[in-house]
UniProtKB/TrEMBL annotation:
Highest taxon above the source species: Bacteria
Domain named HTH tetR-type: residues: 5-65
InterPro entries the record matches: Homeodomain-like_sf, HTH_TetR, Tet_transcr_reg_TetR-rel_C_sf, TetR_C
Keyword Transcription regulation assigned: yes
SUPFAM superfamilies, per the entry: Homeodomain-like, Tetracyclin repressor-like, C-terminal domain
The protein's name: TetR/AcrR family transcriptional regulator
PANTHER family in the cross-refs: HTH-TYPE TRANSCRIPTIONAL REPRESSOR NEMR, TRANSCRIPTIONAL REGULATORY PROTEIN
Organism of provenance: Nocardioides pocheonensis
Gene Ontology MF terms: DNA binding
Length: 195
């Protein structure tokens, strides 16, 4: 990366942090200027509009999710180990990487009824994520770890439900047992899916 690309990536990393805490609608060039120590006009030259900032922040978050969750998951041996890695790494992403929790869950809640390019990008990202879960579950079927008749799309739906449930219990309800309950529910799903 060039120095300019490095600078923009660092700015977008700050934007990802802000959006995870206050949402995409709460992310502003002024707030980003305050956090980065840059001028509003300097940041405006990078992004031109709030929507462009939101879209680039979302793209940067996907890059980071790929680095933190997707690549390490795909480097894990196929089968149930890979399924567990995907879930564990997502939990790490949602609890340790971002101060405000999973930016994609936050965005999905924020934009579920709000049409436009940010929603479209979020929907595409969620489709890609669901497809990844289906694929990883499919490898567990082909490796003989999961039942041959497992509905991998239903499995992916249930994993997503656990992820959203964890976000709700931990972020909104401040349930001290949110992580424990989520892991128990995931173990039950794995047991129900086993060959």
């Amino acid at each position: 990366m060039s120095k300019g690309q490095d600078t923009k990536a660092a700015i977008l990393d700050d934007a990802v942090g802000i959006a995870s805490e206050v949402g995409f609608t709460g992310l502003t060039i002024g707030q980003l200027a305050e956090r980065t120590g840059m001028s509003k006009s300097g940041l405006f030259a990078h992004f031109r509009s709030k929507e462009a900032l939101q879209l680039e922040t979302l793209a940067r978050a996907r890059e980071r999710l790929t680095d933190v969750v997707v690549r390490p998951t795909l480097a894990t041996p196929r089968g149930v180990k890979r399924v567990r890695a995907l879930f564990d790494l997502w939990l790490y992403w949602a609890t340790e990487v971002l101060e405000g929790g999973c930016i994609f869950v936050t965005g999905a809640i924020e934009y579920d009824d709000r049409p436009g390019p940010v929603r479209d990008a979020l929907v595409q990202g969620e489709r890609d994520w669901t497809e990844l879960i289906v694929t990883v579950a499919g490898t567990a079927v082909s490796e003989g770890d999961f039942r041959a008749d497992l509905d991998t799309e239903q499995f992916a739906f249930q994993v997503q439900a656990l992820m959203y449930g964890f976000h709700h219990a931990s972020r909104l309800m401040h349930d001290p047992k949110a992580l424990e309950r989520t892991r128990v529910a995931f173990d039950q799903l794995i047991a129900a899916s086993a060959a």
